[in-house]
Amino acid sequence: MFESPDAALQYALRLIEAWQLHNESAPALSETPHMPIRVGCCFGECIQLQTGEGWVGRGVDLARPVAEAAGLDEVYTTGNVLDVVDLPLYDFEEMGSRTLQGDLLPHRTLYRVTGFNEAAPESGSERAPTAETWLLRALSLIGTERENSEEEARCYQEALRLRTDYPEAHNNMAILRKAQGDEAAAAQHYREALRLRPEYPEAHYNYAVLLQSRGSHQGAADHYRQALASRAEYVDAHYSYANLLRASGQLVEAESHYSEALRLRPEYAEVHNNYAMLLEDTERPGDAHAHYL
Of 12, 104, 172, 228, whose Cβ has the fewest other Cβ atoms within 10 Å? Predict the structure, then answer.
């Protein structure tokens, strides 16, 4: 599912790092404990479904039990991944032999990948960065003082130069341009991301938020609905769509989406607050009081 095994491993390591940083910076609430991530990487055949929203194949089937063998916030991989990456760039350790459900081999040796050293000399001749490498570089800047900088923008530009049909790069560039105040450029990148991948829930949601902020409520509603059609359990889309419906006087529909957002994430304080205000508007002070509490 990646351009190369190196891109997959580097993405996995940065995903874990970003998730840990997010949890360190989030409020330490006892009712919202840290949810660990376990990542499994396997090199094998896989085919994308015609809808573009899923993959099937032995590579995917084996990645799941590899992930299940991993510890909390760890990246495990099979030996055949290490066979085809630039090995000097990684820190790893052998974690023993396992029998993987659905595997044709009786057992495989698994490895825990603990780090990536960009400064290490590569085993082969120097290779030009791929589009995914540029995207990974951009993602590594998010959460730092260089987030939303022109350095991050250049990474997306290089990714799109190498691969014009890269919806993730368009979506992230749009987020950056919106943060920088260039809403016209942001809208253009959201539209391109959705042209390339019509069922891209994050792009639909982000574009809806942009359209809503610009007063295009009907356009925003259309994209909220499309985000939810692609991902029915998209909590933020339910919440934002409910706010839009409430503002336009569609209170019954708004209540339905507030309720669904809270079913999916019961401790979402902002949803409780806005739902309570709706309940006040519909003269149900007792129910509103419960949600304020």
Answer: 104
